[in-house]
């Protein structure tokens, strides 16, 4: 070796041409110089080479196979944190993890065997800063007899990119809160099981009941802690042969292998649920949770991944609706019902856009004078295919699908238009009450959207009342009572519907932003034939009055009920005794012909 010089961070050795091999190697080194810096003596071209390397952000390497020296550019010290010179490839290979070495050696052998001269591989190397991912590219030069003389090229640090890839892969296939495989992982695993027809099994679809309420009241951080604890408890109980995934906000799935008969699967599900019998200790809190599980058997309940998961979800919905038994197996009737709901949902969407919805109006009268004081607007659906559809059949579906939002806006708009027509007919002091779903109330723009409709219709706000079901209001009291106060501040009325069904406490009733309480029909029915109910209704009316609120009795059907309510001081009544709900075209004739009842029945 006669000397050496540094070329753009690359240590280039100069050897004497003592053999044909040295001459070829020398020519190859000149070729490298031409590619990176064509003339070392020319400063301008040397600068071009330096800039090229910096822009490329790569590190140059060369392997002199004749002298078995592997050399890296100086930047390898600061970039890769490795030495820049090794006694041959074997010494460098010691930095490569064992599991990567076969790939590297295979790529190297293929390059030299094919004499194509091109080499590319990815591997990890152990550096003073830990493992790094690199891509090595190079070109080989061979003697005329085919013997390899040189390999030279670049090495690129891929660590940052690989870390990003790993992070993306983790987010794609794993849940960040629990570390469990996610829905995509489950789908791929289940697809593989079905494709290979490995075994029989079952899908157990778990759900933490009312988890949203926990999150809303105790906070997301504590909710995440609960989910992590649930995941750990499932992992400990499920057994090593099975697969566990988190597939939703509060939903988990266990894929059972080699267990598919109902008794065994049911016992397994009970075994899992038993671990949630005791409250969870989260910090200084003790929180009791309930878990429901829906089960689909494989292959009886489906032969595709999508079908099995959907059937397990349907079974879960059934389990959540039966509090005494939180385990449900899939049955075909569930799928049939789901299909009917799907068809009904599409029909309901069509109804909203094609004027199939309409309002019926039931009069509300003064309990003593019998004067009509207003109407309750009741939604109806006149379907060309189904006929007149009961609200019991579609209101809950509308809430589940979110259709209740546009439907609710339409109801108020149509109700305001109805009031305006009554005004023009001379009935200017009528109150219209419309029912409000809790789904509507939860919307952030609920107050403004309701107020905008009333304002734009030119209706005095004090002639509009919103009926809120007692039970639903109690469940979301803190979050939504302020919205009701804002409506009252703008002049609109709030009526508490179905009072007496078992939700309210006196404390809540005292603080509720309501103007009127509607006594549930179940109490009114008992005014005849159950003498124990008579003093109870009397007490309810007296209590409501002491709180400064008015009362309406719902479902009044007989003269005796009317008389007793009048005796108790009830303000208004509503029911078949006065009139069934009627379409708008019957309202004006009713108002013109209606004569207040003169009921002399004894109490």
TrEMBL record:
Domain spans labelled EAL: 341-595
Source superkingdom: Bacteria
Protein name: Diguanylate cyclase (GGDEF) domain-containing protein
InterPro entries listed in its UniProt record: Biofilm_reg_signaling, EAL_dom, EAL_sf, GGDEF_dom, Nucleotide_cyclase, PAS-like_dom_sf, PAS_fold_3, Rev_trsase/Diguanyl_cyclase
GGDEF domain: residues covered: 199-332
